[in-house]
C-alpha cells in the first residue's frame, strides 16, 4: 500500500502545477489552453486519489504517512525539541475528502470553462481555482495540526481572491464584491485565531501536533531520516532513507490523549495543574471557534451569504466540496478529543442544531436565488455539525459527501439560470432597440448558441440601460420549458436536499436524525432531544424554501423579458449538471442502512461507515429508524405541499410581493426572514460600529491628535525647535559668534596699528634694528648693573 500512498504528494502538486502553468502561460495559450490545463490538473488529482482509494481497499485499510521529499526537515528547532516534518497522511478519512474535493471540483472546473467564457481575466480565475484545490488538499492530507492549519489559511486566502474576483464591476457592484471578500477574510481570521490557540495549547500539552489514533499501526514511507513523531530524537533504526518500515505506535496527540485520560494525568499551565480532561475540553472549544468561522455556524456565519458575490462556480466550490466542509472534517479528525469532552460535544450540538433552524428560516424569505442556497448551505452545515457533535461522525461525513453532490448541482443550476436569464435580457434589449449592444457590452457566442453572460463579463462598461438583477427570483418564472435540462436537474437537487426518498439526502439526513434520536432517547443526552426537534423543524423549512424557489424560478409564467427569452446553457455547463444529478439520486447508496442493503448484488450495508471506521475511532453505524424516517419524510413533503399551495399559481402579488406578506399571521415572520433576522444590522450596531468608532478614536484622537500632533509635533519637534532656536540665537549668535567676532576686531585693530610700522624705508628698518639691539643689550646688562648697584 505504501507504494500507492507515495502518490499523495502528486494529489497536492498537480493542481499547484496547473496554477503555475496558467500563471506564466495563460495569456499566451488562450481560453482553450487555460481550460485544458486547469481541468486536467483537477482531473489527474482525482484519478490519483481514486487509485489510492482502490489500493487502500485492497491492502486492508492501513494508515500510511508520507514524508514529502525535500521537506523532511521542514520545521526543526533542536533546542526546543521540535521536529515537525512535512508529512501527508493517507487513510480512509483523508481519501474520502480527497475524492470529494477533486471529484466535485473537476465537474465545477468543467462547468466554469463555459460559464467564464469571455471573461478578460479567464486565466487568473482558473489559476485561483487550482490553487484553492491545492490548499484544500493540503488541509485534508496533513498529518499534523500545523499542516492542516496551512491548508486552513490557504483556502481562506483563495476565498478572498475568488469572492472579490469581480472587484471592478460597474454600478457599484465592484465595491460590494470587494467588501464581501474582505468580510469573508476578516470573519474567518477571527475563527482561525481560536484554532491557532487550540494548536498552541495542544503542543503545550502533548509536545507534538501529530495525529494518530490509539494503538494504530502506521506504515511510514521515508525519503530521508527524520525525527520520530513524538518529537524526541532517536536513532536511525526507526526510519531510514528509501526504506519502508512498519511502526506500531501510540504516539501523537490522539494516542497520548487516550493514554493520559486512562491515567488521569494533569497538565501544568500558568502555575496551575489542570486535569487532562479539562485541557482537552479547552482545546476542543477553541477548535470550535475555528469551525464556526470556516463552516459558517453561529455566530460567525455572516460571511457566507455575502460570498455569493463571487462567480457561481466559486460559490459551488466553496459551498459544496471545499472550504465550508473543513470544520466538519476537523471535528471528525479530532474525534478522539471530542469524544473525551462531553461539554464540548454539548456546545457543538446546540450550535449546529440552532444554526440549521436559523438559516432555514432565513432562507424562506430571500429573493436572491444564490442567497437562498447560501443560507441552505449554512443550514445543512448545521446538520453536519450537530451530527458530529452527537458522536455521529460517520453520519456527518456521509451527509458531507451527499451534500457535496446536490449542493454543487443546485449552485451550478443557479448559475445556469442566471446565465440564461441574463442572456435573455440582452436579447430582449437588442430586439427592443433593433441594434447590437452598445460598445463596452461583451457578448460572445458559445458552443450551443448562447451568449456569454454580459452582467458577469462586462467590466468598466458605461451604463446604457437600467440595471437588471438576473439573480432576483422575482425577475424569473416560466423557465421550466425554456431551460429543461437545468430544470430537471435542479428539481433532482431540490428533492435530494429536502430529504425526499429515495434521493441521496434522504439517507444521509436520516442518519443524523437517527443519531440525535439515539443520543436523546437511549443515551439520555438532553442535547440529543433538543437537536432532534430543531433539526426536524429545519428539515421542514428546507422543503418549504426549496419548493418556493422552484415555483418562483421555473413554474408559473415568465415575469420579465429576460425570463421569456432565456435559453438553455451549453454542453460544458449542462453535462456537469447531469452527472451531479445522477450522484444526487444514487449517492445515498454509499451508506445504505442494513434494512435496505442487498449484499448479493453489491449493495453492502453501511459501506461508508465501515470505510471510515479504519481511521475514525468513534465511527459507528446508525440503525435505521423507520418511524423517524417516515416522520422526517412527512414533514418535508408537508412543507413542499404547503409551499406549493401558496406559490404554485401566483407566486407574487401584483405589486411583486411575497404571498406570505399578505397574510397578517405570516407577515411579521416573513419580514424577519427577509431581513435575515437583522443579523447584519446587529453586527453593524454592536460589532462593526463600535469597532469603527474605536478605530476612528485610535486613528484620529490617539494617533493623529495626541501621538502625531501633541507628542511628535509639540513635545518632540516643538522642544527640539525651541532648543535649536536657543542654541542658534542665544548661544551661537550672541555668545559664540560675538566672542569670535570681538577677537577678530581686536586682531584687526592691532594689525591696523602694527601695519604702520612697515614704512618701506631701509633707514627706518636699520634704526629699528639698532633700537632692538640696544634693548637686548639693556636686558642683558640690566641684571649686572643692578647687582653692582646693590653692593
Present the secondary structure layout:
Elements: H1 2-5, H2 8-58, E1 63-67, E2 75-77, E3 82-84, E4 87-90, H3 92-115, H4 122-141, H5 145-163, H6 173-206, E5 217-221, E6 244-248, H7 253-263, E7 266-269, E8 272-275, H8 276-294, H9 303-306, H10 312-321, H11 326-333, H12 335-339, H13 342-363, H14 369-389, H15 393-433, H16 454-457, H17 479-482, H18 484-497, H19 504-522, H20 526-553, H21 561-564, H22 571-586, H23 607-612, H24 626-647, H25 664-674, H26 679-755, H27 762-790
Parallel strand pairs: 1-5
Antiparallel strand pairs: 1-4, 2-3, 5-6, 7-8
Concise structural overview:
With 791 residues, the protein is mainly α. The chain contains 27 helices and 8 strands.
How does the helix and strand content classify structurally? Answer: mainly alpha
Cα distance, first to last residue?
Answer: 132 Å
Instruction: Report Rg.
Output: 38 Å
Mean pLDDT: 85
Query: How many separate helices?
Result: 27
Q: Widest sheet: strand order?
A: 4-1-5-6
Principal-axes geometry comes out as elongated
Low-confidence spans: 223-250, 436-464
How many β-strands, per DSSP?
8
Helix content: 55-70%
Largest sheet features: 4 strands, mixed
What oligomeric state do the depicted chains represent?
single chain
Strand content: under 5%
